[in-house]
Amino acid sequence: MHNSPFAAEVWGLEAVRGRGDGELARLAELQRGVLHRSQLIEAGLSPAAIRHRLATRSLHRLYPGVYLFGRPRLEALAAATAAVIHFAGRAVLSHRTAALVWRLSDFPELPVEVTLVGLDARPRPGLVVHRRSSLLSGDVCRHSRLPVTAPARTLIDLASVLGRDELEAAYAVALRRGLLEPSQLAQALAASPRVKGAASLRELIQQGREPTLTRSHYERKLVQLLERAQLPKPSVNAQLLGMEVDLLWPEQRLVVEFDGFGYHSARRSFERDRLRDQRLVAAGYRVIRVTARQLDRTPEAVIARVAAALAH
After folding, report:
1. Domain boundary among 206, 231, 255
2. What's the confidence (pLDDT) of residue 213?
3. Residue 279 falls within a domain, yes or no?
């Protein structure tokens, strides 16, 4: 049975450089609060000290030999980091978790999905294990300090677990964020021609154009981002001045309109949208236009602009 640490080619535990809590805090910052037992020992904690910290809840056990240090709850991607550390270079983040790392979609962080090569593992709550006999070296890379399937391999894996609409959305985001070219996906797919969902991916590649994501997809995405930022919830597709606007905050007199989603390409549409904006501004409303590229590439900046407008 092959059990070599293939992911270790792109990932490894952070090296311990000192001793004491200061060193553990440094490591925890680099690893999203997650530490391996070997790092605790190298930094000067004895087995008895580790047991004491577990009893006093300054350490929290996540997996055998893997602990959460110095914080009461998991931060973003900490669960994925814990799974990576647990498998010690023998697993790579894949499927929906890889899509989350690459920001292809807003999948939930749990369960964490990993792919093992030639290695078996027990099922565990919050962890989904996919097994493969092999992975090509180009299928695995490092992103956000984690071993993760490359964008093309991630889309191939997603094709086996997602419906057509979700798969097309992830593919569109990958193209818009410049993570891959259609030719790269076609090449990766040629190496795995019999995977489930391969026909859907081939059809997307053969379209010869960037897939169009629906306006509703981005409405949902922006509303989710607003909720995470704890900003006021807008009215969606609200009626205002005899028009339907995408997002509306009536008290703040703020409107957000989505642009460039297949609705605004014609000159007539362009002129109509500008007339809408003028009518809204004349009535005392402020209008922010958001593009697909902005939401795919710089969602934090979009939220910051909306937050500033709401606070004004």
Report:
1. 206
2. 59
3. yes
